[in-house]
Write a sequence for this structure.
């Protein structure tokens, strides 16, 4: 059952709304009122719109290659439009609009500028800044770059106005861009929108051309420098040719190389001839002293003279051989033939020696020829090496000259390309729809603002009501008492309109009087065995109505026929004698601290039979000690024998400890809570203190509860006199 009871129902939300309806209505009224005030008093704003056609295909990046080709990269449309928005939001563009439209001479904008400067907030800011500068004077900071000029805006205030009033958006089509201008003057809105579109086209064109113009300027200076270098290296190259006497290294190198090759070929032939002559000389020399071996040398045998002499030698030898067999060795013919043979052999040797001498001569000549060729070849090699060294130096100069020429030609080609690009004044944007004078303002949108403010106010009011309800942690209902404290609920006392606190006597038929009788009944039924005799009435903090509650409970007990006594146990703040207009000369403090007689302190109250009271008496210096003394216990013991009910009014628990001390002497404690005011946490802590003191808590009285129609406790009973059936308001008028 408890789980079912804890569920939140729709009627609980409705009760919260009824209870906090003033907050919701106030929130709704404030929101709608503020928006309505703004909507009907704000200056109307008109919007002029100019449409631009953007050729995205022309929106590309082109890079020229050395081969004459080009690399094209298309830009992302989203990235492009974001870039354009940033351009339109830049101060440079706004300054361009100011200059183009001559806004610094326009009376409309000059008046607007004056209003802006002389408005309250900027004026106050300037005064504060001036005061600060007066208090802390300092030298003006100088620029660390005195030679660098900073581009100044024509009028920064007008630039700020343009930035605030201009905006850009992308149309439904991908290549349409809208430039909007907001102004309180419709003509100004239309003219400025078209003017800003024209300024944007010029600005965009300048941005596209400016890099090429900068490139032309840079390339021109580089081309002049490169040209001067080319001329210088060409002069050095020509000077080198003239100094070395060389027209062409290539032709001369070919001549020298060919000559060296010919010399090498002649050297090979000379070596061959020298070797042949050397072999011939050595062969002849090896057999010159051995005539018998002369015939083994082919060159000797091939000599025609030696061949003739050899034939004669053979003839003579044959003749001698034939004559010797016939005539004998001493025959004159044989002697003659022998003499002739000897002469022939001598002639052969002499001829061979001639050949040896000729071979030696040929050998020496071949040797000299070879040596001469070798020397010539070495000289030629040195000439070739020297030419190579000159060629290397020449090639270095020629390479530098060629490199300078190539770089010059490249720069010249780039300069021509950049010059051509800088001369193209075609933009990728054009105005397709100029702005027209708007017929109606775009701001403020009164109906829309009121509708939205109504929605926001309605739901915001509901949220505010629930938020206030959520932040309100006070005890308001019996459910709160059960959940937060876990204590019995004795009764609810509505917030009364009467000035007097003794409601039961002043208006015994009122709802407040009936509530106290209900509390009395709850007390009587709070224990199963018998009703409590000594009842302590306390609260958490001051002004919760504990004294009034104690007095009315005591009166209700007396009206029931019981002998009751009401004791003012709040020794620091005596209020009981004020309620009953009684004498406070002798009271509780005097009985305990000064041993005054009980009969002197007990006072009867006129008009309240069966009810006696003991006021506080003299202010006590140490109330806690007096209330916890044996004399206090003895006093209560004595009173128990004389009275049916003893009600004690005590101080608030969270302020003083007197209530905890008295709770040990009482049969039960009643905690008075100011409904809708006292917080749950502080009440819970106070009740924990009572539990820690082993006090018996009879229950909680929810006091001063506002009985409105939005209250959880509202019943028509509280607006009527139950006995007569008439409303309280009519009764009061009567």
């Amino acid at each position: 059952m408890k789980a079912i009871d804890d569920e939140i129902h729709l009627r609980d939300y409705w009760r919260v709304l009824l209870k906090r309806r003033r907050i919701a209505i106030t929130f709704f009224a404030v929101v709608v009122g503020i928006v309505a005030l703004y909507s009907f008093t704000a200056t109307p704003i008109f919007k002029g719109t100019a449409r631009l056609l953007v050729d995205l295909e022309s929106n590309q990046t082109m890079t020229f290659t050395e081969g004459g080709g080009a690399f094209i990269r298309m830009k992302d449309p989203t990235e492009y439009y974001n870039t354009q928005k940033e351009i339109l939001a830049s101060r440079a563009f706004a300054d361009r609009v100011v200059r183009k439209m001559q806004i610094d001479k326009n009376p409309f904008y000059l008046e607007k500028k004056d209003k802006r400067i002389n408005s309250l907030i900027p004026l106050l800011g300037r005064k504060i800044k001036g005061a600060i500068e007066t208090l802390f004077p300092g030298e003006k900071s100088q620029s660390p770059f005195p030679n660098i000029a900073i581009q100044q805006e024509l009028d920064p205030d007008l630039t700020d106005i343009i930035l605030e009033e201009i905006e850009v958006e992308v149309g439904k089509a991908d290549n349409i861009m809208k430039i909007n201008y907001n102004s309180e003057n419709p003509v100004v809105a239309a003219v400025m929108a078209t003017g800003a579109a024209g300024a944007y086209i010029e600005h965009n064109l300048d941005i596209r051309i400016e890099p090429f113009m900068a490139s032309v300027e840079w390339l021109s200076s580089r081309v002049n420098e490169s040209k001067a270098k080319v001329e210088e290296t060409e002069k050095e190259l020509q000077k080198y040719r003239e100094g070395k006497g060389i027209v062409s290294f290539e032709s001369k190198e070919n001549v020298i190389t060919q000559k060296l090759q010919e010399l090498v070929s002649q050297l090979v032939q000379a070596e061959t001839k020298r070797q042949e002559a050397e072999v011939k000389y050595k062969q002849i020399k090896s057999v010159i002293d051995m005539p018998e071996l002369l015939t083994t040398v082919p060159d000797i045998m091939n000599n025609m003279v030696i061949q003739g002499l050899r034939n004669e030698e053979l003839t003579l030898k044959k003749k001698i051989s034939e004559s010797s067999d016939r005539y004998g060795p001493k025959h004159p013919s044989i002697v003659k033939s022998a003499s002739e043979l000897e002469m022939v052999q001598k002639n052969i040797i002499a001829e061979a020696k001639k050949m040896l001498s000729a071979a030696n001569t040929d050998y020496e000549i071949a040797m000299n020829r070879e040596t001469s060729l070798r020397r010539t070849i070495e000289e030629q090699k040195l000439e070739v090496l020297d030419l190579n060294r000159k060629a290397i130096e020449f090639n270095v100069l020629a390479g530098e000259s060629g490199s300078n020429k190539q770089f010059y030609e490249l720069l010249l080609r780039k300069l021509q390309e950049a010059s051509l690009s800088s001369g193209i004044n075609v933009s990728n944007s054009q105005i397709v729809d100029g702005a027209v004078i708007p017929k109606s303002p775009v701001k403020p949108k009164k109906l829309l603002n009121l509708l939205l403010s109504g929605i926001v106010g309605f739901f915001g009011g509901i949220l505010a009501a629930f938020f206030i309800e959520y932040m309100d942690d006070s005890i308001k209902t019996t459910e709160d008492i059960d959940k937060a404290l876990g204590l019995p609920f004795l009764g609810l006392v509505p917030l009364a309109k009467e000035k007097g606190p003794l409601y039961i006597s002043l208006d015994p038929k009122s709802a407040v009087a009936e509530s106290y009788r209900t509390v009395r009944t709850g007390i009587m039924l709070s224990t199963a065995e018998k009703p409590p005799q000594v009842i302590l009435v306390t609260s958490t903090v001051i002004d919760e109505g504990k004294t009034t509650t104690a007095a009315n409970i005591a009166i209700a007990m007396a009206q029931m026929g019981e002998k009751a006594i009401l004791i003012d146990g709040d020794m620091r703040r005596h209020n009981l004698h004020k309620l009953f207009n009684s004498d406070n000369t002798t009271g509780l403090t005097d009985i305990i601290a000064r041993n005054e007689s009980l009969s002197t302190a007990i006072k009867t109250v006129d008009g309240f039979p069966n009810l006696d009271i003991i006021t506080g008496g003299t202010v006590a210096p140490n109330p806690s000690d007096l209330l916890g003394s044996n004399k206090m216990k003895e006093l209560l013991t004595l009173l128990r024998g004389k009275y049916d009910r003893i009600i004690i009014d005590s101080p608030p628990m969270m302020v003083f400890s007197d209530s905890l001390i008295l709770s040990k002497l009482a049969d039960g404690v009643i905690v008075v809570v100011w409904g809708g005011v006292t917080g749950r946490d502080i009440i819970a802590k106070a009740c924990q203190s009572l539990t820690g003191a082993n006090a018996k808590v009879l229950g909680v009285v929810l006091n001063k509860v506002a009985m409105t129609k939005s209250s959880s406790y509202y019943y028509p009973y509280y607006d009527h006199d139950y006995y007569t059936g008439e409303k309280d308001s009519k009764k009061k008028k009567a």
Remarks:
- The chain is about 60% helix and 10% strand.
- The CA atoms of residues 194 and 347 lie 133 Å apart.
- The domain at 249-422 is CATH 1.10.287 (Helix Hairpins).
